[in-house]
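Summary of Year 1 activities. Much of the first year was spent building the evaluation harness for sequence design. The harness presents a backbone, in tokenized form, and records the residue chosen at every position. We chose the following record to illustrate the format because it has been used consistently in internal testing since the harness was completed.
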């Protein structure tokens, strides 16, 4: 009986995962189309608009990678965070005081260094194919 329950539990979790990924993908596509529609109505495309579209694209790509491999590379959400912070700077830099700009820029540098550390770790200390 426990093997059957384990199998049902795994299938249930997998189904919840797929439903969640579907919701995320649909919501991201809707948000992207809304942004594109807004750009057409306004009649201009700004750097902040492009960065927002890039964030949406990265979210969809992250879902695709997860569906393909069953794994989520930690770098992808970090990339999204970097772009989100860059967009925040592009939108609000005029209204920010100097220390806030330095703080956001420092966060971008810190996230970038974490990506470099992760990449270095994967190259120099790859996962073993055999479980310990």
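For this record, the design step produced the sequence shown next.
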């Amino acid at each position: 009986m426990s093997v059957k329950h384990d199998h049902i539990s795994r299938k249930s979790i997998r189904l919840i995962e797929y439903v969640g990924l579907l919701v995320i993908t649909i919501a991201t596509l809707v948000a992207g189309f809304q942004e594109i529609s807004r750009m057409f109505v306004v009649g201009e495309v700004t750097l902040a608009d492009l960065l927002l579209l890039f964030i949406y694209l990265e979210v969809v790509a992250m879902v695709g990678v997860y569906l393909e491999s069953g794994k989520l590379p930690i770098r992808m959400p970090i990339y999204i965070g970097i772009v989100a912070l860059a967009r925040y700077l592009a939108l609000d830099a005029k209204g920010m005081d100097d220390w806030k700009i330095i703080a956001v820029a420092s966060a971008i540098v810190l996230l970038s260094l974490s990506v470099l550390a992760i990449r270095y770790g994967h190259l120099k200390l790859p996962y073993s194919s055999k479980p310990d």
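Residues 2-124 form one domain. Quantitative recovery figures across the full test set are reported in Table 2.
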